[in-house]
Amino acid sequence: MATIAPRKNREGQVIGYQVKIRRTGFPTQSKTFGAKTDAKRWAAEMESEISCGVFVDRTEAERNTLGDLIRRYQAEITPTKLGGDKEKGHLAVILDDQISLMRMTMLASKDVGAFRDRMAAAAYAPATIVRRLNLIATVINHARSE
Q: Model pTM?
């Protein structure tokens, strides 16, 4: 069941609306919106996903950036690989790029394409660019499997 509660500032003015959805067997979902209609829409979407069985808990993805995933991968997986030193260098370049600051829920193919274009503009070899794109995919797939 979704509940929508107004969020007020110190003067008592409504500044937004917080939605909380609680269902037995599912983690509590909450999100804050500026408009009540947006809050109702999100609540309906989430309740529909839960009812239909297609609900995916996005709290971890909303909390983590690509950089967080890369650092965890660098600490846990890269040291066990034979080419770990080279991979560490490629991951460091990705971490230095603005793509590493993107939240996982906001990361889209256009962002990866922009990263590819920045690498090409920096005169990296095509094979190096492909290697780094594959590393991004590997890091994301590893995080999904955990």
A: 0.63
